[in-house]
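We now fix the convention by which a protein and its fold are recorded. Think of the row as the fold of the chain written in a discrete alphabet. Here is one such record, which you should read through line by line.
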Amino acid sequence: MISLRFRIIISTLFIMFLIMTGSYLVIQDIQAGIIEGEFRDRGFLLANNLASEITDPILVNDIMGIRDSIDSLRENYHDIEYIYVVDSQGIILVNTFEGGFPEALQDMSKPSNEMKEYVFDTEKGIIHEFSVPIFKNIGYVHIGVSENRVRLQILDASRKLLLLSLSAMSLGGLFIYFIGRWLTRPILELTEGANRINNGILDQKIQITSQDELGDLARTFNGMAARLNQKITDLVASKEEVETAQKYLETLFNSIEDGIIVINLNHEIIRTNKSFLKMIGMSEREVLGKTCHDLIFKDVATWQEKKECPVNRILETKNPIRIVHETYSDGTKKILELNASFFSDKKNLINIILVSRDITQQKMLEEELVTRNRELTVINEISKSISDTFDLDKLLLQILENLLSLAKMESGEAYIMDENSGNFNLRIHIGINENVSGKTLPHVIKSNDALFLQNMQKTTGTDNHERSVGFLCLDIPLRSKDKVLGIIKLYNSEPRTFSPKYQELFSAIGNQVGVAIQNISFYNNIKYLKDFNEEILNNVNLAIHVIDKDMKILAINKELLNLSRGMFKKEQILNMNLFEAFPILKAKHIDMEYEHVFETGETFMSEEKIEYYGELIFTSTAKIPLKDKNGNVERVITVIKDVSSQKKLEEELKDSYDELKLTYMKLKELFRMKDSFLSNMSHELRTPLTSIMGYTELMLDENITEEQRQKLEIILRNSKRLSMLINRLLDSTLIESSNLQLDIQMLSIYDIAVLAAEDMRGMSSIKNIPVSIEISPSLTIEGDRNRLTQVLSYILDNAIKFTIKGEIKITANEEKDYAHIKISDTGVGIPEDKLKSIFDKFYHLESSDTRKYGGTGLSLWVSKNIIEAHGGKIWAESKNTGSTFHILLPERRMYERERTR
């Protein structure tokens, strides 16, 4: 063992060695720097002196003088290796090199007006070249000085310094040795004293009297030894007390009611008290050596589960735990409250102290309290639902949810009895299970039926594989007095049993819900009557209000609010005094009328003219008394009819009747003049037009030129169009005057179509639009030949005008007692929203179309009236491109068909 004294001396010597070594290196470095600085200064001094000395020879170009100065300098300073002088152009004037000027120095011989130092490593050693300018840069001096001499000086100084350092270390070592012995003597004394204390010798003091820290430490050791001696004496005295306390704790350990066991790291029980033995019904010999899994955690079976047992959790976390655990002893279920703590003694022996308390009875009481509390909560929720809502579906839904929660069942249904059939219809269903009993239950529950349970079976299956499934069905009749108003059925996939107390509870809830259902039924009936009466009051065209003897307004309807011209809202006017709400009634002495009704009990009829907020209102009023069972009038219903509009209309009608009568006479005369004018003008125009068309046709039969023929055809074509226009105006007059006459005869639709196509042949040929007819010649109808030909011509005219290219097709077929004619084209088509408007008088599709295609807007209107005069129907269809006009005509006139029947 190395002593403290030796360690102190060696450590101090090592520290001194480091200090001396560092000092030596620092001083050596400083001394070398000083010598090198002096060397550099001497080099520049020699160069400057030489430059001053050779200034005159250079000015007079005295090369020999320069060389003499150089030789003199080299003789005085033997460490100069070379000297060369250059002029301002860098031309070497003088040099001391015997073998020629070195190439390595040629770059440095270039002129420079600065003092510079260059260092070279040569075969002769390291050379420093000092370069200085000569008087105003007329030349430059370069002196190369060897540093070998300087290095010898530095080496010599280092040797002397090393010798001095070694001498100092030797003297310091001797000093440290004696100082170390002097310093460690008290420490050795302390060590011996500590060893004596360690060996139990406490009555000898450490003899150190110095007043420093070691003296304080010695006195501390002496005091500690004295106190330790006293404590040992006290410890011996208290040992007996500990043994007594241990006996007491042992007695307490075995007499405490809670079971206590001590478990080691292997989960083995190494100690137990009598209460635990009594708790599990075993002897100490049977318990000791068993594991906690054998006696307490019996449900922890596998190795993995044992790793996760509470004891392992304590060993991992070292934190106490408190758990409630169920176990079985001799087939009896026990609920234990376990408190486990981590315990480690002075020997680091780890144990688990587990305190167990049997709380089986306590838990049973707690579960009973929870159950009762849950029952009370459900009953409270049901009572709250019954009192909060009159919505039957909402009530049944809330009650079903609460009953499922109370009974801990999976699904439920609520059935309500149908008063007409007596069956119970499904109203509400909750849960994922399907409806077991169907949508309707037969009337099987009688008035004396009580709650009953059924462990039922049902068969389900897929792919022809059937299986039987058992479930619990709980029926709760909803009874009011002796009448069952509904049934609540609860289902569960696992059979369960309920105590008689639960059955009584469910029956009571069913009775409570049954009363609630009956109350909801009464409420709905009352609400229906109230709403029905309010609906009647609000929808009659009469203002109604009800007042009592104090003239307080009890009820009003919407019409009264309308009559008040929006001055009041319903909430504002209710419970107000009638004459405060309508002060004008007091001014009109209406209060006397109400007094009359209250006194006589008779209805009072009146008419009033009231200026209400600047508006004159006329009313017709009836004040109707409402009597109590004793015949006394307690309320009055006032029925008011606003006849203001009627009165105003009567006055306006009186004022405007004569004006309307005069206007009517004027219009009648104007219509007569218009009809006469149109009739005369049409006849006057038709006479010259007939002559023009006749002569034009005669001229076309003559031998004329092609140009003349074209012009005559234009005249003939436009004359015919003008004739058609005149005919349309005449037809319009006849239709409006209801003077349209029909010459009814049996007609072939094919012949009519051919005539119409022939009339339009000229226009169709010009536009190169063929007209095809696909009609059976045997298809006949009764009608006016000219009028029906006119209709087909009008439709063909429009089809040709609005078709740019393509064809026009006329078809017809028989449909029951009607002939269905279709005229189809490939023209521009008709917008869908205008298919009905095209048959209106003077209607055109667009103003631009009118300018492009022309027309009066009468042809389709005239056609519609002609077809309807035949007892038929006309309409159009179009899908963007092309149009189809449909004409439906009876094959025989209506009176003929009636006569045939």
Notes: The radius of gyration is 68 Å.
